[in-house]
Amino acid sequence: MDIKELLANDRVKPYVSKARFGIEKEGQRVDLSGNLATTNHPEILSARDEHPYIQRDFAETQMELITPVTDSVEELLSYLSAIHEVAYHSIGDQEMLWPLSMPPQLPESEEEIFIAKLKNVESVQYRRYLAETYGSRKQMISGIHYNFEFGDELIQALFNVQSDMDDYKQFKTEIYLKVTRNYLHYRWLVNYFYGASPSSEKNFFEDRPLNEPVRSIRNSRYGYTNSDDIKVSYSSIQNYVSDLSLMVKKGLLSEEKEFYSAVRLRNGHQIPHLETNGISYIELRNIDLNPFETHGISYEQAEFLHLFLLYLLSKDEGANKDEWVQEGDTLSDLVALEHPLQQTQLREEAETIIDEMEQLVEIMSLTVSNSFFTNLREMLADPSKTLAGRLFEESEKSSQSEVAIRLAKENFLQLWDKPYQLTGFIDMELSTQLLMFDAIQLGIRVEILDRQDQFLKLQFKDHVEYVKNGNMTSKDSYISTLIMENKTVTKKILHKRGFRVPLGDEFNDIEQALRSYEIFAATPFVVKPKTTNYGLGISIFKDGATYEDYQQALTLAFQEDTSVLIEEFLDGTEYRFFVLNDEVHAVLLRTPANVTGDGKQTIEELVNEKNLDPLRGKDHRTPLELIQLGELEQLMLKGQGYQLDSIPKKDEVVYLRENSNVSTGGDSIDMTDQIPDDYKKIAADAVAALGAKISGIDLIIEDINVPAAEHKAYGIIEANFNPSMYMHIYPYKGKSRRLTMHILHYLFPEVV
Amino acid sequence: MDIKELLANDRVKPYVSKARFGIEKEGQRVDLSGNLATTNHPEILSARDEHPYIQRDFAETQMELITPVTDSVEELLSYLSAIHEVAYHSIGDQEMLWPLSMPPQLPESEEEIFIAKLKNVESVQYRRYLAETYGSRKQMISGIHYNFEFGDELIQALFNVQSDMDDYKQFKTEIYLKVTRNYLHYRWLVNYFYGASPSSEKNFFEDRPLNEPVRSIRNSRYGYTNSDDIKVSYSSIQNYVSDLSLMVKKGLLSEEKEFYSAVRLRNGHQIPHLETNGISYIELRNIDLNPFETHGISYEQAEFLHLFLLYLLSKDEGANKDEWVQEGDTLSDLVALEHPLQQTQLREEAETIIDEMEQLVEIMSLTVSNSFFTNLREMLADPSKTLAGRLFEESEKSSQSEVAIRLAKENFLQLWDKPYQLTGFIDMELSTQLLMFDAIQLGIRVEILDRQDQFLKLQFKDHVEYVKNGNMTSKDSYISTLIMENKTVTKKILHKRGFRVPLGDEFNDIEQALRSYEIFAATPFVVKPKTTNYGLGISIFKDGATYEDYQQALTLAFQEDTSVLIEEFLDGTEYRFFVLNDEVHAVLLRTPANVTGDGKQTIEELVNEKNLDPLRGKDHRTPLELIQLGELEQLMLKGQGYQLDSIPKKDEVVYLRENSNVSTGGDSIDMTDQIPDDYKKIAADAVAALGAKISGIDLIIEDINVPAAEHKAYGIIEANFNPSMYMHIYPYKGKSRRLTMHILHYLFPEVV
Asked: What is the pLDDT of residues A549-608, one digit of tens each?
């Protein structure tokens, strides 16, 4: 069976790049000076022992970040980045993750290395056993496990075009066995490029076996290995399983998982099932942390591993399968123990492999990053460009430890830079990013069903909830959102239930509306299109209007919609109440874009100064928007007798916009603690009257110090079924209200 | 207080035409030969005793149709028409309603007039008392009660511009008392125009007091009146209430409601509350059934009464209020007993009133129907144009009874003509009209919150449900509808739950989609825009496609949406399953527009013949659409080697369209009983997997005789959260499935 030929078959080629990925990344928590943390794993990671994304490995300080399975390397790294952001914010701003595989300086006594304080007794006992058998120091080494699965479409296509085997499961298992043996044989190449553990810190080795730096202590015989008695054959799945069982039976291994091979065969269950169910994916375990990457691995590395595995699938292996693997062990150790700046002894072979990989890319019409092969060849030509080489060279200037601390701090700053976003998902809406952040923190599984559409699947154990736009959930009924969408219906229902709403009429043609002029002529009123929401076509007449103004307002409104509302204008301040499950969780005041004078700076300077706020940005990527100085703003200034270079008096507030939308540079001010309970009750009751569970309801309040019950003290403008949440979470002023967390607790009351 | 002047005040004028209306219309059920029905009130009107729309008055055969309160005469008549349609369909096609106020020929013995078989014992006892006191014959007279309320805005505006009274409630009561007294004084004018009970049928009078025909027996002393002992003053609310109480105390009346005045003062509660709560509306009771109107009253009549009441509000009354009313009684009787073809003795006064009404219309800038005043003046000049005059003249040719039967039959045909619609609401969607029909029948109150938006409020006792488009309800969660709206998410969820869906990919740019050509090249597949629903931009390749075709299909699809799906094409027949609350209630097969040859007629002739089906029409106003013979149809014919004048062989089916949408002339065929249960279970389970309660889910089935469990026997295309219902209720072929009724029973399980 010539797999290389099969891969090039037209019925296989379209699927060659299909694959699924997952990463587990360990790392030690350290304080800001680089000392191993003495704190416990963060309490806030609620689902601690069973957390799907953030776990502890051997030690209490050893964080393990676990991505979900993804269909692309891009998504893989997006999740890895998101989980890092959550991890950093969970451990707080006095700790960071050590960026090296080799741990920071360890305590003198092994006793002071605390194994993970898990609730599960067996998990703790297993770690105690490991500490006794291998010593706790060894267990402190960290790394990356790269889980890889060929796309089922690919294996299916390969199976369909071959005729040697009849059983699909068996075929698939053979595919993975071949790749595994080849990987074990050629893994020295990974050590060369990406080995990154040249030396250890104080107290790691009891005796110092290495005087010279190497490419990878971790992947050498001095790393994390089983004793030499452990022999497991990869020649067939039967041999693999029976060898492993034998090792356990003999007591050489406590459990199958104690077998520390560079590749673990997986099928999502315990080892015994491998033989019956076959291999469904493999786990590469020989990846050192990349110190130069915030998340411990680069896109190119992940891409390399994928391509390398495809290449190894196509490549012939040695005749004797066991020898082939054993040779690999020797070569891996050899390259791992080379000096980081030394040319590898296997350079020629490496060059051949790179050439063959490039050919494969061409034959298969695969796409790789720009300069993918150039970079690999450069690393081959110049060892100082490999990870180990770079780390060693940098460490020469000071020490490896200081380099690590510097890199960790850079990561720290980067990961705390924009707390309102998930860097891997910035194309999604801010509220959805924040909800994903919180879900990851709570240990609720997040799957993106439709990225453009902000459609998430959330899962905690067997409990599944679907969420769109962060707040559209199973808790609201369809009709309640349709009620909120229709301003006339909302008002009718609220009015009937005794709430105060601006009275008025709906018109479907301008003639009919014009005939009603006299009804409104002398009263304060608003003309607005029935369904547009962005302030377009709205005219406000605070003291009535002439017939001409009335006519013009109607013309404008009818340009936006076929139905127009004319409503009583209510005077007062508009507040947004965020209601969730009959309770007000946040109240926000929005003010139009403005600056406050200091008697010295011009309006333009004041705007520029205010725009320095890191929360302000463009295109809804930040919780607040930059104040613009465009035509509308200058017109507004002119109306007040100002220009851009006018200097407002100290404490004078100058408005640059009529409308108070955050999206046009307005400010958001949390008022939750200032608004009296009676208004909150009205908001919550009104939302309940609409049958809604999640709503942002807008109240005009004349004076919050006047009790709500007094005549005309408030009016309800509208209720929104998709209310923005991020503006409450990152307001311009006042307390943050973590609404996304409330949503999650509402959806998953069992998560505490 | 000169109300005429107040009405002309600029602050009052805008509100003058605001009013609220309601009608109660009685009528005797008769068989198709005009004999009083011997059947019971229809069982199907579930909420029988408490039915808000269809009740029994005195007798079991005497239907009382009751409109809700409306804000306009148009809406009033729309409801009256709808309730008539429901009433006719409820009594079945062997009965109709007698169109005259005077009953049809009565049984010889009063014993054979069955009083209404109500459950409530007191109601039955009251009717027995009436039968004993007045005789059952008298109680068989029917008529219209016209409930009228001035707009609260109007009374409020009047109150605001006057200074004589301080108490609003008292002011309002005085307004109504004045109008009532004037109405009682001038009601002879209504008798003249609209009196329509010139003579009685056999067995009505035991002795015949009238030898000559009159304008209105019903409104004369021979009609439905109290004994002469009953004297009630309208001079003040106190006098009215105390007089009534006295009558009851003396035993002259059994209850206040036995007082048969031409105007009843109302406030929605029992009489004793009138004094404390004031009058909130009045009930005009002297309106004879208009024999020439399907619903017993014309638009102009309703308009006249509104305008007449406004006029009476503006008109001065006599100095002695009690005398003023008593004079009215005399005048009313006088005009009622005039010969229908005789000029009225009060013609001059009538002309003055009409002139004054016209002046009022001008002063107040009110709008009335075209020729409103011309018609009134013609009736004044020519008594044969009054209702009594017309009925009498027509009866002269045969008999009043025969005229009545003919008119009843005309109504019968009209009310059965388009069973799929509610004539007063044809601007609304068919499914909503059908749901309203069923709600009215079940006695569930219907209020239209937004007519354009198909937004209804349904209420049974205290239980309120809101419904949009007939099937968007509180039962579905918001997220389930969003899931169904998103085809990719729907497929992902169904696929994960083990349902078969066409596999494929979503593409957001054409380049990326083009690169995937090889994946689909040789397979059957469909290219379609992600969110459009009307078949636009869809290309089907049943045997793969060339690159050029593939490219063109993508270009078309991307013109419709920014996301395009490429999916496996499933061969088979598409069925629509309507699932409600985990149960399949209907399965429909839709076929493209087609005709079946008879070996004689041309295609054009066959189409014309098929289009005669009364279910076919235009613009979704009918359950099926007319088959067109436009460009697309002719192209389709050409592709099969046909032209419009080709003559297909007998039993040959010729298709005129590719797509099977009912909206382009397709046929709908009910298959509910033909589809095996295993497919129904799949449909119901899939909808449940989406968390939905109401959905139209489309399955492609290769062969309904192959069990669903067999590999590839079906595939789920999509689930619709707003599935059409009328096409199941009025299919082209097969059984009707009354889904609107199922929806109502689902929303209101307490209604049986």
From this structure: 999 999 989 988 899 989 888 889 999 999 999 999 999 999 999 999 999 999 999 999
Could you tell me which residues come within 8 angstroms of residue B428 by beta carbon, excluding any fewer than 6 positions away? B422, B436, B451, B454
pLDDT value, residue B533: 58
* Cβ neighbours of B480 in A, within 8 Å: 474, 478
Min CA distance, B479 vs chain A (Å)? 5
Output the CA torsion sign for A599, A601, A602, A607: negative
Which tens digits make up the pLDDT trace of A98-116?
A: 999 999 999 998 889 999 9
Token reading at B475: 């039962």
Closest residue of A to B531, CA-based? A453
Q: Is the pLDDT of residue A532 over 70?
A: no
Of B479, B486, B721, nearest to A450 by CB-CB distance is B486
Per-residue model confidence as pLDDT tens digits over A323-368:
999 999 999 999 999 999 999 999 999 999 999 999 999 998 898 9
Query: Which residues lie closer than 8 Å to B726 by C-beta, 6 or more apart?
Result: B420, B430, B431, B434, B623
Distance from CA of A11 to the nearest CA of B (A): 8
E strand or H helix that includes residue B617 = strand B616-617
Ranges of beta strands (E only) in A493-570 are 504-507, 525-529, 539-541, 564-568
Q: Is B468 touching A (CB cutoff 8 A)?
A: yes
Say if A466 is an interface residue toward chain B (CB within 8 Å). yes
Residue entry with tokens 């200097």: A647
Q: Residue B516 and residue A203: Cα distance in Å, rounded? A: 55
How far apart CA A737 and CA A725 sit, in angstroms, is 9
A82 interface with B at CB cutoff 8 Å: no
- Residue A479, chain B, CB below 8 Å: the answer is yes
- Which pair of tokens denotes residue A373? 């092969």
What does the pLDDT look like over B464-497, one tens digit per residue?
Answer: 999 999 999 999 999 999 999 998 999 999 999 9
pTM, whole model, 2 decimals? 0.91
CA distance B420 to B431: 9
**Gap between the Cα atoms of A637 and A633, Å rounded:** 6
pLDDT value of position B274: 85
- pLDDT of B325-352, one tens digit each? 999 999 999 999 999 999 999 999 999 9
Task: Look up residue B78 and give its amino acid.
Answer: S
Query: Do the beta carbons of residue A86 and residue A54 sit within 8 Å?
Result: yes
- Which DSSP letter does residue A658 get? S
Domains of chain B: 3-417 (3.30.590.20), 445-475 (no CATH), 506-568 (3.30.1490.20), 573-746 (3.30.470.20)
| Residue B534 in this model has a pLDDT that exceeds 60 | no
| pLDDT score for A69 | 96
Tokens of B619: 């613009």
B721 in contact with A, Cβ within 8 Å: yes
Q: Give residues with Cβ within 8 angstroms of A297, minimum separation 6.
A: A23, A25, A77, A80, A144, A146, A287, A289, A290
In the sheet with A445-450, reading across from the earlier edge strand, the strands are: A445-450, A455-460, A463-468
Chain B residues with CB under 8 Å of A476 CB are 477-479
**In which band, very low, low, confident or very high, does the pLDDT at A226 lie, cut at 50, 70 and 90?**
confident
Q: How far is B66 from chain A (nearest CA, A)?
A: 22
Mean predicted lDDT score pLDDT of chain B:
93
Contact A492 B466 (CB under 8 A): no
**Which chain A residues are Cβ-neighbours of B563 within 8 angstroms?**
452
pLDDT of residue A92: 95
The ipTM estimated for the assembled molecules is: 0.89
Return d(Cα A580, Cα A589) in angstroms, integer. Answer: 18
Closest CA to A345 of A295, A383, A400: A383
